[in-house]
Specification:
The chain is an alpha/beta fold. The protein folds into three domains: 7-133; 172-227, Alpha-Beta Plaits; 234-421, 3-Layer(aba) Sandwich (Rossmann fold). It has 21 helices and eleven strands. The strands form two sheets. Strands 7-6-5-8-9-11-10 form a seven-stranded mixed beta sheet, sandwiched between helices. The N and C termini lie far apart (49 Å). Bound molecules: S-adenosylmethionine. The site of S-adenosylmethionine (SAM) has 17 residues, from α15 and α19. Belongs to the class I-like SAM-binding methyltransferase superfamily. RsmB/NOP family.
């Protein structure tokens, strides 16, 4: 976000009015529907506690007449306002929806059109308040408790990390190598004017040069790719699978990593996708069909018995455990406002419970990967240390771990630990 960069020139001169004429016209058009669409979405997120991605999806679905430009305006504005909610509320002259929107719009470096709704807004005052602000938690728009927790856990690295996690995420594709090579997909998308680039260290990834809705592209419908962040793509790779292996993905959810694992196994062997939520595994089934993956089986975890029955059956085990999600704030900015110290403590307990029982599924000589999309050591290396010191971990040794920070990778924050069983 070009944050407050141009607040100084916000009262328009005549010539500026001309240059922003088109933009203002666009805003005029937005007045009755799109800005209201943003307000409605924000109310559902903040007053009813709904998830931002679901709210935006529903808002757009229930207004099919909006054009592509309006739709992307609503999605982007809602996400960015959620991301910067604390700072916007602090700088805004009131909690009125139009004041909040105007403050956000000025923060983006835009000018305000001369609407009645914006008549109370004084850009200079907002600018002045911003310049005087030296509370880093407000500046980075996170709750105080979270800022303190981040500092306690990450020390010197925290401020740069939260700054990086406040940037908009890039769109990354994972090429489905069962159907197409990366080069072929790159060329195919270019024919539809979707330009991408590759980066070193991520063999299956293509990064979009410009954000666009790739889900509408025929190549997606034909299962040529999935949308999956580059850091997330490191997880299946760390599992070092081979064709013919028997692999368990014990927290498979909608199957993002299971599908990648199956592709790395060249569709040979078996992947057992497990989760406590059956509806998520249903998604895995649909995605597997689209991607031409034939080796995934699904199993709902109904209790400890399900795990015991699978004792020593896996060459590889993936524990992509539930976590705070603090590494993926770029794509889920509402997480900042939904988390609490208690909810993080609860998720840490679940992580350790999983670690205490699921590794029994690994065959002697097999390997396990423990992964989170969190940057907090207390969900990551501290959990692994605790596991290794416990009875359940006595047969395991740590091969290596990767602490992927957004500030260093440019992608989501992740933790990936590889362990070997005796
Ligand atoms: C980080 S998400 C997994 C994302 C998934 N692996 C992917 O790549 O799309 C964590 C998953 O763990 C599941 N989960 C929560 N508690 C669990 C438990 N006790 N055992 C297994 N899975 C659990 C959640 O339903 C959720 O789908």
């Amino acid at each position: 976000m070009p944050f407050l960069g141009s607040l100084k020139n916000l009262i328009l001169t005549d010539s500026e009015r001309k240059t922003t004429f088109v933009q203002n016209l666009f805003l005029m058009k937005l007045h009755n529907n799109t800005i209201r669409g943003v307000h409605t979405a924000l109310a559902a997120i903040f007053e009813e506690g709904q998830y931002a991605d679901k709210v935006i999806e529903r808002t757009l679905k229930s207004n099919p007449k909006w054009g592509a430009r309006d739709r992307s305006f609503i999605a982007e504005t809602t996400y960015e306002m959620v991301r910067w909610w604390r700072l916007i509320n602090y700088l805004s002259p009131s909690k009125e929806p139009y004041d909040l929107f105007a403050t956000y719009w000025l923060m983006q470096g835009h000018s305000l059109p001369p609407w009645e709704e914006f008549s109370k807004i004084n850009p200079d005052k907002i600018q002045e308040k911003y310049e005087k602000l030296d509370d880093p938690a407000k500046l980075e728009s996170v709750p105080d408790w979270l800022f303190e927790l981040g500092k306690k856990e990450l020390g010197d690295k925290w401020e740069a990390e939260i700054h990086s996690l406040n940037q908009e995420a890039q769109v990354v594709l994972r090429v489905n190598t069962l159907k197409i090579t990366r080069e072929q997909l790159k060329n195919r998308l270019a024919e539809d004017n979707i330009h991408t680039h590759i980066i070193k260290g991520y063999p299956d990834a293509l990064i979009l040069d410009e954000r666009t809705n790739v889900f509408r592209n025929p190549a997606f419908k034909e299962g040529m790719f999935e949308v999956q962040d580059a850091s997330s793509q490191l997880v299946a790779q760390a599992l070092a699978v081979e064709p013919g292996m028997r692999v368990i993905d014990a927290c498979a959810g909608a199957g993002g990593k299971s599908l990648h694992i199956a592709a790395l196994m060249q569709n040979k062997g078996k992947v057992l996708s497990m989760d406590v939520e059956e509806w998520k595994l249903q998604q895995t089934k649909l995605r597997a069909r689209r991607d031409g993956v034939a080796i995934i089986e699904r199993k709902v975890i109904e209790g400890s018995k399900t795990i015991k029955r699978m004792k020593e059956t896996a060459d590889r085990l993936l524990l992509d455990v539930p976590c705070s999600g603090l590494g993926v704030l770029r794509r889920n900015p509402d997480t900042k406002w939904k988390l609490s110290e208690e909810s993080i403590e609860k998720v840490r307990q679940t992580q350790q419970e999983i670690l205490q029982s699921y590794p029994s599924m690994v065959k002697p000589g097999g390997q396990m990967v423990y992964a989170t999309c969190s940057i907090l050591p207390s969900e990551n290396q501290d959990q692994i240390a605790k596991f290794l010191e416990s009875e359940a971990g006595k047969d395991f040794t740590l091969i290596e771990d990767q602490k992927v920070l957004a500030q260093e990778s440019g992608f989501d924050g992740f933790y990936i630990a590889r362990l070997q069983k005796k």
